[in-house]
UniProtKB/TrEMBL annotation:
Gene3D superfamilies: Enolase-like C-terminal domain, Enolase-like, N-terminal domain. The keyword Isomerase applies. Residues 157-254 form the Mandelate racemase/muconate lactonizing enzyme C-terminal domain. Coiled coil: none annotated. Pathway: Aromatic compound metabolism. It comes from Plastoroseomonas hellenica. It holds the Pfam family MR_MLE_C. This is Mandelate racemase/muconate lactonizing enzyme C-terminal domain-containing protein. Belongs to the mandelate racemase/muconate lactonizing enzyme family. Keywords: Aromatic hydrocarbons catabolism, Isomerase, Manganese, Metal-binding. The keyword Isomerase applies.
Amino acid sequence: MPEHAHDQASLPRLPIERIEAIPARIPTIRPHHLAFATVAAMDVVIVKVTAGGVVGFGEAATIGGPRWGEESPEGIAAIVTQYLAEPMLGQDAAQLNAAEARIGRAVRGNAFAKSALSMALHDAVARARGLSLAALLGGAQAESLPIAWTLASGDTGRDIEEGEAMLAARRHRDFKVKIGAHAPEDDIAHVAALARAFAGRATLRVDVNQAWDEATAARALPALAEAGVAMAEQPVAGWNLAAMARLQRANPRLSIMGDEGIATPQDALRHAMEGACMAMALKPAKHGGVAGTRAVAAIARAAGLGLYGGTMLEGTIGTLGALQLYATLGDFAWGTELFGPLLLRDSLATAAPEYRDFAIHLPRGPGIGTDLDADKLAHYRTDRPRTLHTV
Ligand SMILES: O=C(O)C[C@H]1C=CC(=O)O1
Ligand SMILES: [Mn+2]
């Protein structure tokens, strides 16, 4: 037997003993206005995997329930406990490739649920081996990644104040503006006012979250480019690759980014082959976990497209899981937007991500780099009455 095979074989198995999924709701620091919904709280599902006596954590977040995507917190928790747990119990978590393949076969679709379980398995294995998740995946290529903020207060003046505060704190200098809920002229005026306010000090991008049809996008995108917007995320429906391709060809000064339309590696391949975008937003939740995210990133790179480290506005657990994975992937032409924990009023984790000098910094320590705060989870969980403490 070759020596490396012997070394691998000598590491203890990590049989999966327990899988839990706990839904929780955490209020945001302000209402977050998107084209399709305004959210004042984030609904997340925390997945806990016990393997070889070690517990790992993953998280799935939904924006307004099944509105951004098709999955709801209730559905995610049910898929994990009713359909994914049974085939995974007793399996060796350390065989991560086999585990992800088994998760993939057990249930069709349901990428958010699969991703939370994938992250929890990776976290458990990394902890058991005494490695960070990035180290388990072959090592980080960066110790920090640039971090954008989303301006979505619903008011131009408040967005400018918020952006000024972020610049003064040296937290963010890339702003993504959520548009698509109002008349395009009003959205363009809003973005132009922000562009004037931050000229030369911050970059501006927009996210339309599929709200426009092609005719609206064809009129609006040149005006946005004129105002100084460098990137426009999902201006039309995710299925409308032909429109994406025509819009991208007509607006070469703008990078059109695919988001909702790019979940599977096949989606990514089609976007690349049809010239439907110049940039792709990664989100482990869309891609069903670690393997899917790596596959989509590889296709983007092979096609020469810019990568963006996206978020579903997860709390600290999901955010650090994504950060550990993104850090292994190399260059992100558009940076990341892993700011979820900053939008939430409280955290289910014992550690907080480090945001400093316009970047999010990779934590030290095993696994994703934080533990779950059991008391906070008990307080915010939505699947049973809160425990009332008296002093
Ligand atoms: O990109 C999305 O569509 C979802 C999300 C990411 C940042 C944000 O504010 O919303
Ligand atoms: Mn988006």
